[in-house]
Amino acid sequence: MKRVIVESPYAGEVKINEIYGAFAMHDCLVNYNEAPYASHLLYTRKYVLRDNISSERELGVKAGFEWRSPAEKTVFYVDLFMSKGMVQGLKDCKAKGLSYEVRRLPSSLWKRFLDAMENEGVEVIRAKRKGK
What we know:
Blueprint: E1 2-7, H1 14-32, E2 34-37, H2 39-42, H3 54-66, E3 73-77, H4 84-96, E4 100-103, H5 107-119
Parallel strand pairs: 1-2, 1-3, 3-4
Helix pairs in contact: 1-5
């Protein structure tokens, strides 16, 4: 398995973005045979770091960037949008000359993502994905 860093939105609609991030990790595991790491989904867990406190958020970003070197590439999941943190991550990859890839969930996983949001009680508008 290749080690990959997963970049997906977090801030804003946190519940939606956490569900989306989980499906991005699933895509890496099942469809690409990769070992994904998503610091934004780990460091924002209760009692780890508080994303709404800028010093703690920056600490989490810095710690997440430390994992880029042992990873073989960073994958950016962009179905929803590119967040400020994702843009910052892309700039970091480019500045360090590290491998990256831009991805979207396959249609079957996108449908499962929408179904999961409904099952979690998140109001969903079944609209087309960004860029589709």
